Amino acid sequence: MKMKTFRAQSMREALALVKRTLGADAVIIYTKNIRAPGLRGFLGKQLVEIAAAAEVRNPPVSPQPAPLSGPGPAAAYGRQAPARRSGTDEQLQRLREEVLGIRSTLDELVRSNCPPVVAGLCEPLSEGYVTLVGHGLDERLAADVVRSLAAEMTETELRSEERVRERITGRLAEHVNVGGAIRLTAGRRQVVVLIGPTGVGKTTTIAKLAANFKVRGKRRVALITIDTYRIAAVQQLQTIADIIKVPLRTVLTVGDLKQALVDLQDYDLVLIDTAGRSQRDEVKMNDLKAFVTASWADEVHLVVSATGSMGNMLDVVKQFRDVGPNRLLITKVDEAEALGTLVSVSSRVRVPVSYVTTGQDIPDDIEVASAGSLASMVWER
């Protein structure tokens, strides 16, 4: 039995290497996604690794040269030569039986390690499940998606890798909850608050929103910041406010916030930046809730980073729930190693996703979230 490990850019390429090297009868031992070596791996690139085994076939035995003179062994010993060939045949038969036994054991090992939820699925959908899980999608959701397609897809569709991916993406999109962009109504001011833990990029995101609505949307925009804990955050917003020519108010108390909102009542959109809060700091969370309540906000966007694990993102949503977020805004998509967590989180929480940010550039690296785009992101890394 010959065993070998293969690595390639995709599952299809890896399987092609297996068949080309070990033959169509090769047995797959395991498949997994691994980080690519060097700089590509550092930037989040992944490879597919497959371990496979196959029977080692003995090379054909070259015929023995004819003797130059005299009787050969067969002639000298009469009927003993056929007996020797018979012994060789028996050895080959025993070798074949041993190989079949090893293959049977390996097949059983593969079956026992196969997740029960996808056992029995055709190869394209099984590969799809492995890829989705490798890209960070919740295992249960990945299994639900591929199993739901098993009875719907035709054999023709299953033979097309592109079509399989399209159908899986479409089914994933059905699990994504999106809320659309901030909606402005003529003659009515909208107040939007951004909340979230420290380090998720709230200030940069609110600057992007302000620049887009003011410069591209031609709307009257004003900014308020409650983030007085970080001087750099106030300075960053002030710089943006000066560039796009919008007012910025810095408030320290709930009373200050109420007065600022009275002063800015003639604007189309007021964006409020808040200080990052640890979701485990109860006192500061209560302070934040008081500010949000006093703002009478139309929309409260909870900002979470795509670089966190699914467990961390769900924990943030849970801890900020009492503050009253009605939108989820996902940042740092460009820095995340796996994007399946975005779909997994969206499928588990009832808060619709509004925007995703894909870099630091203001105002460009922000886009309105759509179910299709989020589902498609799962395949990217």
Summarize the structure.
The protein has 381 residues and is an alpha/beta fold. It folds into 3 domains: 78 residues, no CATH class; 52 residues; 188 residues, Rossmann fold, CATH 3.40.50.300. 46% of the residues lie in helices and 17% in strands.
Overview of the molecule:
The chain is α/β, with parallel strands linked by helices. It folds into three domains: 1-56 and 92-113, no CATH class; 123-174; 190-377, P-loop containing nucleotide triphosphate hydrolases (Rossmann fold), CATH 3.40.50. 46% of the residues lie in helices and 17% in strands. The protein contains 15 helices and eleven strands. It has an eight-stranded mixed sheet, with helices on both faces. Strands 1-3-2 form a three-stranded antiparallel sheet. Strand 10 and strand 11 (366-368) form a beta hairpin. The longest helix has 34 residues, at 80-113. The radius of gyration is 32 Å and the shape is elongated. It starts with a strand and ends with a helix. The relative contact order is 0.11. The model is unreliable at 72-79 and 107-113 (pLDDT under 50).
